Amino acid sequence: MTKSRKQKQKKQDFLRKKLKVGKPKERASNATNTSFVSKTISIRNQHLDHDPHDLTKRLTLLKHHNTNVRKETLITFQKSIPSIINSRVMTPLLTQSIPLICDESQQVRQGLIDLIDEIGSHDAEILKLHCNIFVLYINMAMTHIFSQIQADSTKFLSHLLKYCSNEVVRKSWVKLLNGVFGVLGWGQVGKNEGASVVQTKKRNAKYINIHLNALYMLVEYGCQDERARGVDSDTAVSFEDSSDLRNPYLIPDCPQPFEHLKLFTRELKVKDPAANGTNATLLSLATQDIETRRAAFSEQFLPVVLKQIEIIIKEGGECGKTANNLKKLLAKVFD
């Protein structure tokens, strides 16, 4: 009797009960009551750090795997520059956006150029503080395995020279010249100049013109003072005689004026830089003044430049015009 009753109970567990009209469905024996309401206290402005215009959360999107997300993030920051130019967001913004110089997407690289122009038009001093990082990634782009990134590397150099030319030529004169020579296919100083990967004729004329313009700007800012370039000529003439007396007692025009002394940097000591070739000797040279930069360019770079631009001038076109302008500039500076 007991056994048959247990069997019936087991069968009931697997039988669907028929609902009767007008009666609700029976509740399960293990049903949980979820009709309770949590009691909370809601205070106005409870989250004091909540800001709908806070852009710090968008910084991580600059490393997003999607190209469109990176591009849209750069556009968002570009539109917000007037309101955040003096905020603490600028340092992490530049630190995380500068590596996009080597981004594989051309749209992202163009968006970064527009962002640099927007920052430079509002406050160029911010770009000057990050010159070392800019030069590092520009050199990486100049030696990148992708030809499109190499081609756009001098665009970043030209825009950087527009806003902080003095800092760039003082800190990385020889390094940038070697990089421009590399993208032009002219070889590097101290190496086999004839062993360029791609010859000038095989390169795109559009990119050659961009590279030559960057070289023109680099020579113009590195080998000419402001008076020779026609910038603030009246001021330069008025203070020329007293410059030696007034400069030691004024606040420096550039950040970290004694950085070239390398008092707080750690570097590997080289017993004899000359043993590693001409290139190593030039890279260890401090190029803080115009005379040193002129001497380094005249001794090591000028013969190669004159030889190559003569070939480009004969080919004609836009590249020939730019090469002719560069030839006139070199004649003005070194004759």
What radius of gyration results from the CA coordinates? 33 Å
What portion of residues belong to β-strands? Answer: under 5%
- Given helix and strand content, the structural type is mainly alpha
- Biggest sheet, open or closed, and with what strands and sense? none
Low-confidence stretches: 192-202, 233-242
Overall pLDDT level: 80
What oligomeric state is this?
Answer: single chain
- Let me know the number of strands: 0
End-to-end C-alpha gap: 122 Å
Order of secondary-structure elements: HHHHHHHHHHHHHH
Query: Number of helical segments?
Result: 14
Keywords: Nucleus, Ribosome biogenesis, rRNA processing
Domain Pre-rRNA-processing protein Ipi1 N-terminal: 126-217
Subunit structure: Component of the RIX1 complex, composed of IPI1, RIX1/IPI2 and IPI3 in a 1:2:2 stoichiometry. The complex interacts (via RIX1) with MDN1 (via its hexameric AAA ATPase ring) and the pre-60S ribosome particles.
Organism: Saccharomyces pastorianus (Lager yeast)
